[in-house]
Structures are given as C-alpha cells and as structure tokens.
Amino acid sequence: MVNQEKDKRFLIVFGVVFIVSFLVFIGIFISINNRFKANSDLGLLTINTTESIVPNENTAQASSSQDKTVNEVEAKVTNQVVNGKTSNTTSSESMKASDNSQAEEQAKKIQQVSSVIDEPEPKKELEFMAPCVGEIITDYADESLVYSKTLDEWTTHLGIDIKANKTSSVVAAESGTVKSIKNDPRYGLTVMISHEDGYETVYANLLSADFVKEGDKVSKNQTIGTVGESASFEVSDPPHLHFEVLKDGENINPTTVIQ
What we know:
Number of strands: 12
Distance between the termini: 184 Å
CATH topology of the domain at 136-256: Glucose Permease (Domain IIA)
Radius of gyration: 65 Å
Shape: rod-shaped
Helix content: 40-55%
Low-confidence stretches: 42-66, 84-90
CATH class of the domain at 136-256: Mainly Beta
Number of helices: 2
CATH architecture of the domain at 136-256: Distorted Sandwich
Largest sheet: 10 strands, antiparallel
C-alpha cells in the first residue's frame, strides 16, 4: 500500500515536471522562431531600402531629366525676372541718359550764346597809313648813318622824311589820342599821338597844328596839321614831314608798319 502511494506520487511529480518542461520547450521554441522571423524581416527591409536608395539606370536618367527640367524652368524664370529688371533698368538709364544729354546740349547752347554775348570783340590789328602823300627822301637809319646837309655830317635818322608841298595836309596814321603838341628845338612843331598796343607816332617839321589839341581823340586819316619847314636840323632839306613810329618807347622803321 505504501509502495503504491509512492509510485503514484512519483508519477504525479514526473507528470508535472514533464508538463513544465514541455511548456518551457514550447516557450523557447516560440521565442527562437520569433527571433528568426524578426531577423528575416529585417533582412528584407534592408534589401528593399537599399534598392530604393540605389536606383537603376532608368530611374537615374528619369531623375536627372526631371532635375534638368526643373533647373531649366528655374533658370528661365530667373532670366525673365533678371532680364525684366535689366530691361527696366536699361530703359530707365536710357531715359536718364537722354534727359542728361538734352540738358547738356541746352547748357552748351546757353554757354555758347552767353560766351558770344560776353566775349569782347577781338582787337583789330593796327594798320598804319602814310600820314601824307609824297616820296621818301630820307630813310630810317638807326644802325647806319645818313648824310645831313644841314649839319654837314653823317648821323642816325630815327624816322623817315616824306617830301610834300608846304601846307599839305598831315593826317593821323592811325586812331589814337593826342599826347603832346610842342615846338622841339631840333624837329620844330611836333605832334605826338599815342595808339593801342604801345604804339606812338611823331609828326614833326609842321607848319601848323591848329586842328587838334592835347588830349583829343583822333581817328585814322583825320587832319592834324600841315607840312612846313620848322625843323632846325633839316632846314636845308625841301618841305617835308618828318615821321617817326615808336613801339613800347623804342623807335622802329615806319615803313614796316605802313600799309
């Protein structure tokens, strides 16, 4: 009886152990199976992901074409915008340049008109005329000598002697101002006229000078006196006009300026 109970207990314990072991085995199997399945799914996911990341040649070409089209569209739009701005800017700048050009032209015209109005008239070159009609009987001589009948010697002669009838008219060789009228001990009755540009003219050996007085403004070809014989240094010569020209206080040859 006691042995039977022991056997019965043994069978019960054995059965419990077996069932527990079986359940543990089943649990382990399910766990391993789940892990294997999970690893298989992970491998498939990796393959699929790789395939999506590494496209084939057709996919790459399509993507490249699409990107190119997008870039072209963007470039076209950008060019249109830029060209539009550039066109507007160029048009605006052209209008400004045109306005500035017109303003400059008007300013130039105004300046030209103003310069014409304000610019003084250019001075005319002095053109001396012969102060009387006649031939030259004694030439100008500053570096050479001429013979003086009156002095009976060779001497310099700082003017020209123009032979003319007594009382012949003597005129101003150029317009100017009567500087002096005097009786010179050597040249007799003498009139001096000052002109522009530093010129002066001397009319000596006159008979009279009643036509002008000192300070008078005289015009070219205006009568200032008459030919005489008042020069003591040239009394042996026939009636004539002794005529001198000075430039800046220095005597020059009158024939170089008489037209």
